[in-house]
Amino acid sequence: MSAVTFRIQPTGNLGNQMMQLMLGHSLRSQVPELDIVGYDMPLWSLKGGEEPVPRAKPVELRGHLIDIHGVASLVKAGLLRDMKLVGIGSRMANYLPPSAYQALFPAGRAEVERHGDDELLISVRGAEILGQCHPDYGPVPPAYYRQLARETGLRPVLFGQIEDDWYSRLLMEAMPDARVVRSQGVLADFERLRSARHVVTSVSSFAWLATWLSDAQTIHVPVLGLLNPAQRPDVDLLPLDDPRYRFYRFPVRRWNGQQEDVDGLSREAHYPLMTRDEVAALLRQAASSTRAERLEVAAKTVVKGLLGRLRG
To answer: pLDDT by residue (tens digit) across 190-237?
Structure first.
């Protein structure tokens, strides 16, 4: 079989770009001759080779509803030779086990404080998502963090994008006994999250990926915004079969950065721990709601591959 090219168009922040490269390596595990190009992540000393001139217009892989196994089948059938990833494909079925990516993103690239078994490291996402950035992001309610500190009995450590802003002040007022550790840079922050024994993710691909690649004992996930299949059925970042994970139910919430959204963060609420069966049901419902869209994406990929083959 002739060489097959997987072109990456870097999208979003570092976490998203890492997930794009992971997608390419998942495909390469099924298509060994795959040439992955276009990525550039100096923090990991990773850079793709020079992009070859395409034989025809590359077939674009968009959004999250990318079936990497279906793509591999089309490549093996000779229907796809040149692809361009302009999406992210954030779905558990697209990924190999975390161990498969450890060599790509090796631990220990930054010296950081290691948190003990008695601490709960809480990832704080703030900065641009506090405003009208994206309805599927937004800050996590402080009541959730207080609940986890109370239920686990661990000492809370607020960590990450803690600045001189209203959300940081709200968190510190709500959790006056929590230790506060501010961001120390992208790579150091990733390593700190990755090295923690007990960690709480924010609604963030960066925090999700750092904890998924970790050796953590427990990982607490708010099923909120982008991480809630009821809100984003095209995304699946809930590792159902991974015993480290604890999932907590949230209502569908679309964050607009308005005063009513900000006021809602101060309300007291309880976020129930979900059973594995409840999470599975949520994912099945999401799969059902996206079935027609997934079939349409697959059909378009086949047609574009056929046209590319005829033109090439």
So the answer is: 999 999 999 999 999 999 999 999 999 999 999 999 999 999 999 999
Amino acid at position 256, single letter: N
Count the domains in the chain.
2
d(CA 192, CA 235): 26
Output the pLDDT for position 311.
Answer: 62
Q: Token pair of 26, please? A: 């998942």
83: exposed, middle or buried (C-beta count within 10 Å: 0-12, 13-18, 19+)? buried
The Cα 237–Cα 153 span in angstroms is 27
For position 310, what pLDDT does the model report? 62
Asked whether residue 71 falls in the same domain as residue 148, the answer is no
The tokens describing 222, both together, are 């708010």
Q: At what angle do helices 14-28 and 205-212 cross, to 10 degrees?
A: 50
The domain that holds 142 is classified in CATH as 3.40.50
Interatomic CA distance for residues 307 and 135, integer angstroms: 37
DSSP characters over 203-215: S-HHHHHHHHTS-
Q: Are residues 239 and 306 in the same domain?
A: no
Query: Do residues 42 and 144 both lie within one domain?
Result: no
Separation CA 43–CA 14 (nearest Å): 9
Which pLDDT score, from 0 to 100, does residue 304 have? 74
